[in-house]
Specification:
The protein has one domain: Ribonucleotide Reductase, subunit A, CATH 1.10.620.20. The protein is about 75% helix and about 0% strand. The protein has 12 helices and no strands. Helix 1 packs antiparallel against helix 7, helix 2 packs across helix 10 and helix 6 runs antiparallel to helix 11. It is globular, with a radius of gyration of 19 Å. The structure holds fe (ii) ion (2 copies).
Length: about 280
C-alpha cells in the first residue's frame, strides 16, 4: 500500500526552483531541422559513429528507466519536491532517447548488440540502485560522461543535427547535475546534523560507489579505441575529465552538506546550481 502525504509541504526551495526550470526549458526532437544536408557521407565514418553512439543511446535509455523507477521511491519517502523534479528529468531522458534513436536512422546504422558490446550494458547495470543517494552517486558518473561526450561531439562538428542534439543535451545535463548536487548536499546536511560518524560512513560508501561505477568506463573506451580516435574524440580527455569531474562533484556536495550542518560557511553553496554544473 502506497502512503501519500495529504498535503505536500513543498518547502525545499532549491528543488522547487529546478522543477520550474525543468518545466520551462522543455524542447522537442521536432524543433530540430532534420532536413539539414547530410555531411557524413562516408560509410566508414557512419559505421564508426554508429558504434560510438551505441553507449550513448544505451545510457539515455537506461537513464529513462532508472529515473522513472526512482519517482515512486521518492514518493514513498515523501520527498515530493524531488519527485516533481524527477518527472521532468524523465521527460528529458525520453527526449534524449528519441533524439539518438532518430539519429541512428539519419546515419542509416543500428546500435551494436549486447553480445558485441557487453561493456556498455555492464556499465549501466553498475548504476542501478533503489536508494536515491546511492543511485545519484552512480549517476554522477554517467551524467558527467554524457556531458563530456556531448561536449566533444559538438566540438567535432560532424553534422549540424548532431551538434544541435548535443547543444540541447548539454543544457539538460547541467540541470540534472544541478539536482544531483542539491539532493546529495541536502541529504548530507540532514545526516551530519544527526550523527557525524554515520554521515562519514555514508560519504565513504558513496565514494566507493563512484569508484565502482568508474571502473565500468575503461572497458567501454577500450572497446571503441579506434572509432573514438577516427571520429576525433580524445579518450584520454574523456577519462581524465570524468575521473576528476565526477569525484569533485561528489566531494563538493558532501562538503556543502557537512558545512551547512556544522555551521561553516560554504562559498560554493551560493552559486546557482545549474550554472555551476556546466563543463
Ligand atoms: Fe540524457
Ligand atoms: Fe541526463
Amino acid at each position: 500500500m502506497n502512503i501519500y502525504k495529504v498535503m505536500p509541504d513543498l518547502s525545499n526551495e532549491r528543488q522547487m526552483r529546478l522543477w520550474y526550470q525543468g518545466i520551462r526549458k522543455q524542447w522537442s526532437a521536432t524543433d530540430l531541422d532534420w532536413n539539414a544536408p547530410r555531411r557524413i557521407v562516408s560509410d566508414k565514418l557512419r559505421d564508426q559513429l554508429g558504434r560510438v553512439l551505441t553507449p550513448v543511446l544505451t545510457g539515455e535509455q537506461s537513464a529513462l528507466y532508472s529515473v522513472s523507477g526512482l519517482i515512486p521511491v521518492l514518493g514513498h519517502q515523501s520527498q515530493v519536491e524531488a519527485q516533481f523534479y524527477l518527472t521532468t528529468w524523465a521527460v528529458d531522458e525520453a527526449r534524449h532517447t528519441e533524439l539518438f534513436a532518430r539519429y541512428f536512422k539519419r546515419i542509416d546504422r543500428e546500435p551494436l548488440s549486447i553480445r558485441r558490446f557487453p561493456a556498455g550494458y555492464l556499465f549501466q547495470s553498475r548504476i542501478v540502485s533503489k536508494d536515491p543517494a546511492e543511485w545519484l552517486a552512480g549517476v554522477l558518473v554517467s551524467e558527467s560522461m554524457a556531458q563530456v561526450v556531448s561536449h566533444e561531439l559538438k566540438e567535432c562538428d560532424l553534422d549540424p543535427v548532431l551538434s544541435d542534439i548535443c547543444n540541447g543535451i548539454l543544457e539538460d545535463e547541467a540541470r540534472h547535475l544541478g539536482f544531483n548536487h542539491i539532493y546529495i548536499e541536502d541529504q548530507f546536511k540532514a545526516l551530519y546534523s544527526e550523527n557525524i560518524e554515520a554521515a562519514d560512513a555514508k560519504a565513504n560508501s558513496l565514494r566507493q560507489r563512484v569508484e565502482y561505477v568508474m571502473e565500468g568506463v575503461p572497458p567501454i573506451i577500450n572497446a571503441l579505441t579506434q572509432e573514438l580516435k577516427d571520429v576525433g574524440i580524445s579518450m584520454e580527455k574523456i577519462l581524465h575529465t570524468l575521473n576528476k569531474v565526477a569525484k569533485d562533484r561528489l566531494e563538493k556536495a558532501i562538503r556543502g552538506g557537512r558545512n551547512q550542518a556544522l555551521g561553516k560557511k560554504e562559498k560554493s553553496a551560493e552559486e546557482p546550481e545549474v550554472e555551476a554544473a556546466r563543463l
